[in-house]
TrEMBL record:
Its main location: membrane. PROSITE patterns: ABC_TM1F, ABC_TRANSPORTER_1, ABC_TRANSPORTER_2. InterPro entries: AAA+_ATPase, ABC1_TM_dom, ABC1_TM_sf, ABC_transporter-like_ATP-bd, ABC_transporter-like_CS, P-loop_NTPase, Type_1_exporter. Residues 317-552 form the ABC transporter domain. It is a multi-pass membrane protein. It comes from Pseudonocardia tropica. Pfam families: ABC_tran. One of its GO terms (molecular function) is ATP binding. The chain crosses the membrane at residues 38-57, 110-133, 139-158, 225-249. This is ABC transporter ATP-binding protein. Keywords: ATP-binding, Membrane, Nucleotide-binding, Transmembrane, Transmembrane helix.
Length: 562
């Protein structure tokens, strides 16, 4: 469609030159013929109108093209973000690259497509005008083309300046975007008011604004200077070409009508050349950004044909001598950790903040791959993807989907019958949450999209546990599933945790050691290593770290009661 508009545009431009020559010939003819003149002028008007309207039609067509390209680029970006290993998200390098790609790569492909389209249209225009000029006064053509060189040079300089500017401004640009989020979005609104962070944050935002404006101002000046120089070069070329036309006319080599047509053709050619160089500049400017997008695309692992099936746990899942280090960190978060979860068993992880519990839970959930050591499922070595298919997990920072309660729960297993929701609602205690809602399980949750209901932290946590149970797997990982529950809700949940798990094996992390007592085995972590393991009674008898932590919590409660 866009290409056919260009062809029509080029033909119309040629028609403008032809019609102008006709009209001029009719004007200067010794015997004036009114019909010829009218036909010539009408043809000129029509050709000019068609040529002009093609530009408008093309710019509308480009809107469509822009949206389609943006959609295609987003599909590519999302293919990477949803398929890359989870560990990428722990790396600063990846986050920066993602942000840059999101910021630039979506607009750049559009710029390139418009530039390419523009260039092909301009090229068509240059060729048609060149033919017209060749037919009238061939000598003009080399003059015009040679004079185009300064324009090429200037467009190269301008595009280089643009990339330098973009690299220099990115720091302030990102900082400003971050501060705008802090100052405008809901999760930050409460602290902004209670801590009166608004003032220092606004000040920092304004400073980033000023710095960016300063850089932009300098860049704009530079580009304006280049533009003036380019226009000057084009102007001189035009003047030169017009002088040659006058010379040719005076020496009788061309007629007056031909001179008029040649002048129009020269003018149109120079417009086409300017357009061509502007597009070339945009293309050069976008190249580094597109290379960036290509590098980002290459991060996605190849798409798997079929997800691995969920495995039943027949004997045990074992973490064997596992060492794991976060990207860009010198010390490992886990070191030589060995742990087993047998069929139907509840295993708990205990340790102080930063001891590596969540990291280990993520390895057991198949979200991170160990750097050393291995994981085995019923004796067979298993990788992250196969683990993820066979495990259900609730992490501390579970997602609060802006959907109905039912969708919030069933999203964990799209293959399972949605009517099973009522069972997991009862098992997780989320039924008590649902009872209080106007539309029961069909109530919209969250306040971001629709006018939904917001739940308390503890209520959300029950929904998250229900989601975890709905994904019916033989191994369940629960990282602090009760942190936001009130004491009654927590003790109710743990009182029937075995019933809730219904024979599933589970890895449980909880700071409340009273809840951990019931585990079949407890592993005590310190600085990324397992320093002890056993049942609650065994660990208390051994009087190690566990006994110390347990004693501290018990003492606090007893002191408060006495
Ligand atoms: P816990 O759950 O026991 O509080 P974590 O598993 O969250 O401990 O953290 C273990 C160690 O790994 C800590 O020293 C923490 O600083 C480090 N760590 C956790 N997450 C990251 C991360 N995304 N990048 C780098 N280091 C991390």
């Amino acid at each position: 469609m866009a290409a056919s508009l260009q062809v029509v545009g080029a033909v119309a431009a040629l028609a403008v030159v032809g019609a102008a020559q006709l009209a001029l010939e009719a004007i200067v003819a010794p015997e004036r013929n009114a019909t010829d003149l009218t036909v010539g002028l009408l043809a000129l008007a029509a050709a000019t109108a068609v040529s002009g309207s093609m530009t408008i039609l093309q710019s509308q067509q480009q809107r469509l093209l822009g949206e389609r390209l943006s959609q295609a680029t987003w599909t590519d970006i999302l293919a990477v973000t949803t398929r890359v290993r989870m560990i990428n998200y722990e790396s600063v390098g990846f986050s920066t690259q993602l942000e840059r790609v999101e910021q630039n790569a979506v607009s750049r492909p559009f710029m390139v497509a418009t530039a390419l389209l523009g260039m092909s249209g301009n090229l068509l225009g240059v060729v048609t005008m060149a033919i017209a000029i060749l037919a009238i006064a061939p000598i003009l053509l080399p003059v015009l083309l040679v004079a185009g060189f300064p324009a090429v040079l200037l467009s190269r300089l301008a595009s280089r300046a643009e990339f330098t500017f973009a690299s220099r401004a990115i720091g302030d640009f990102r900082r400003r975007a971050y501060l705008r989020r802090l100052l405008s979005q809901r999760p930050f609104a409460a602290e902004a008011r209670s801590f009166t962070t608004t003032l220092p944050l606004s000040r920092e935002h304004d400073a980033a604004n000023d710095r960016y404006l300063g850089l932009l101002r300098r860049q704009v000046r530079k580009r304006q200077a280049y533009a003036v120089l380019t226009t000057l070069a084009v102007g001189i070329t035009l003047a030169g070409a017009f002088l040659i036309i006058v010379l040719l006319l005076n020496t009788g080599q061309i007629s007056l009508a031909e001179a008029g047509a040649a002048a129009i053709a020269v003018r149109l050619l120079s417009a086409q050349l300017s357009g061509f160089f502007a597009s070339l500049g945009n293309l050069q400017e976008s190249a580094p950004f597109l290379q960036d997008l290509e590098r980002f695309r290459a991060l996605a692992p190849p798409e798997v044909e079929e997800a691995p099936p969920a495995r039943p746990l027949r004997s045990e899942f074992v973490v064997d001598q596992v060492t794991f280090r976060y990207p860009e960190q010198s010390t490992p978060a886990l070191h030589g950790v060995t742990l087993a979860i047998r069929r139907g068993e509840i295993v708990a992880l205990v340790g102080e903040n930063g001891s590596g519990k969540t990291t280990l839970a993520k390895i057991i959930a198949g979200l991170y791959e160990p750097d050393e050591g291995r994981t085995t499922w019923d004796g067979e070595v298993i990788d992250g993807e196969a683990i993820r298919a066979s495990v259900s997990v609730t992490l501390q920072d579970f997602v609060r989907y802006q959907m109905t309660v039912r969708d919030n729960i069933t999203i964990s297993d799209p293959d399972r019958d949605r009517s099973d929701v009522s069972t997991v609602l009862a098992d997780s205690g989320a039924d008590e949450v649902v009872v209080g809602l106007d539309d029961g399980a069909d109530t919209m949750l969250g306040r971001e999209l629709d006018e939904g209901v917001d739940l308390s932290g503890g209520q959300w946590q029950r929904v998250a546990i229900a989601r975890c149970l709905f994904r019916d797997r033989d191994l369940v990982v629960l990282d602090e599933p009760t942190a936001a529950l009130d004491p009654r809700a927590e003790s109710e949940l743990f009182a029937d945790v075995r019933q809730m798990l219904d024979g599933k094996a589970a890895l449980l992390i909880s700071h409340r050691l009273s809840s951990v007592r019931l585990a079949d085995r407890i592993y005590v972590l310190a600085r990324g290593e397992v320093i002890d393991s056993g049942t609650h009674d065994e660990l208390v008898r051994r009087a190690g770290l566990y006994a110390e932590l347990y004693g501290m919590q018990a003492e606090t409660y007893l002191r408060d009661l006495s």
